[in-house]
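new request in #modeling-help
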Amino acid sequence: MKFTVDQNSLTDGVNWVSRSLSTRPIKTELLGIKIDATGDEVILSGSDLETSSKAYFKADILEKGAVLVPGKLLAEISRSLPNKPISITLDGTRVLVTSGSAKFTLPTLSLNEYPNLPELPETTGTVASDTFATAVAQVAIAAGRDDSLPTLTGVHVEINEETITLAATDRYRLAVREFSWNPATPGFSTSALMRARTLADAAKSLVGSKNVSLSFAPTTSNDRLAGFSGDGKTMTSRMLDGTFPPYRHLLPTDSVTTAVVEVAPFLDSVRRVALVTDKTVPLRLEFKDGGVSLEAGAGEEAQATETIDVLLNGEPISIAFNPVFLADGLQAVGTPFVQISFTGSNKPAILTGRTEPNGASIENYRYLLMPMRYAS
Amino acid sequence: MTSVFDHLVGQEHIIEILEGAVAASRTGEESQEMTHAWVFTGPPGSGRSSAAVAFAQALICPNNGCGTCNDCNSAKTHGHPDVEIIRTEGLSIKVEEVRELLTRVAWAPSMGGWRVVVMEDADRLTESAANALLKAIEEPGTRTVWLLCAPTLHDVLPTIRSRCRHLQLRTPSLEAVTNVLINRDHIAPGMADFAARVSQGHIGRAKYLAINESVRSSRKTIMQLPLQLGSLAAAFQAAQTLVDLATAEANAVSDERDEKEVEKLQEAYGKGATGRGMATGGAKAVKELEKEQKSRSTRMVRDSIDGALLDIATFYRDAMMVQSGNIDSMINTDMREQIESYAASSPSHSTINKINAIMEARENLARNSAPLVTCEALMCQLARK
Ligand SMILES: [Zn+2]
């Protein structure tokens, strides 16, 4: 095997496949990156068996071949190289990497022990990469982190013809985002449960491409795989087992009070007030015509009160939230203003975005937040 | 047609249940026959983990566990994406390990069948690890099956065992073990008979003994120890000999393997690379591996000492048989004269006390008492008339 490639293509590819390398894999071979130059272009692969990534790039292939090399070391070397053509050559059991005067050799690992990685399922449609990345990030924030409740660590992906609905919940909040996409075949619908951090990482890393292709194996298929791909990059990930809890009935359709607040000062206040107490201490909010006041802690210690402007529609309301979860939601709406819709002090509230204080609320993203009990 | 269950020796009563479960599992629904959590219990060597692994193979094999297809083979060797075999060789299974496991188990089965987790040493779960596992067993994935193995049901947290179907393995008969050694492992009948007899139903131990000359020779030395306890100094010497031999036996297995594992890991981080050394994190990963190996080797030494104590117990058991006039069921027939003369010179209640002392020492070792000190105390007890 022998080829030359420019530094950008190599580093970009190595960085992409490195995302799928685990630090403590079941087999040591999975610490490796496979370099495959047996075809017309070079294919790099990395896998931890849950996700498998491949990067494709053009190269001047002088001698065909394939090899498995220590993944982390290849990543460190490629990043350290100058922006010049790089030559990669298999020499016996070692791989030579040269670029200008820089010269490295890497040992090779047993390619025979390297597993066959799953093929990317057929493309089911495409979506603009930034839309996808934003939507996934908005939803993944609400996913659970407790691996003993695996279903809740996932993002539920539901495809209904031209609409994709993403949802995630850790039982204390629920985020739902809808966006449209271009299905490859009309009338397609399916659903899948993907690990939130895998999905978020893949979506974020694919923004370099204009569009992202999504591939979901149909629910009838034996292969419970989903794939994501952009320019020269693909990733397959296994779906999570289990049934995502039904959630649509949790989203109230009417409200007794709506409050519109400017996000930036509100977020600052939430963080400042929460600072003086433990993260799990309820943040008490009182929405009145004159403004919303924030208070945390009780008794002499850790009292903190701030008031900020609010546009209130309906009855005044007092409610308490987990400050971290509230801050997450305020950030996730991604607009200058937030509308909070209440149905009661001990009922969940819904955050939606508004670009103008008097404009309509943007309903394609809803962040439902459970209130906390507190002693008054 | 061959079946993975053919290799389970003397366990006909559970094979029937497992085959029923496999048949029921094909419907894809949870049923009375096919449930998602099982506990296999049985004395060491009865093959509880072999039974669990065979069950795992049968669940994922298109032919109900033929033992010859790709799925069956890869399931056994950690190569099947839907079968996870947790073989803890450390002293305990920690909560971090269970959490890591749960992350992996959350995947849907790749082949659309079942996802099976075999935990060979469920008795070694720490309390927090067991609690983490409990949550997962309470709310299992729809296609996940848990197969836990432990010596007895008491070794499993009550909250876990109440959610599992229980299968109790039997100690296989002498004939059954001998036949397996002859037919499966092609061991000469005389050797097979000897190995099966002295291993008391522990098939793995019997095979190991039958194929390893050095192990047989260590055993021979250890079996002489009860006859060499004439003085306190001799008792201490005997304890030292026992611990040394058991340690050497354990290390013979682990040293070579440890070295290979470290080498492979270093290679995967790029040891021997020029222009730049090993990748960052390599040294740390190796250190972690070495820590695991150390804990594994500690356990192997303990297991090996436990095996030696069980061997010595057979000496007193034989003596007791002779004292009660039952000479036909002697285990150590090669030591008949020595045992008979010991039996004649020692009162039978003292023999029973000595067997009890050995069992007590084994229990202490299982609770992590210091091996040499425990063996010294034991040998002093055995030295009494
Ligand atoms: Zn099979």
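bot summary: The first helix of chain B runs from residue 12 to 25.
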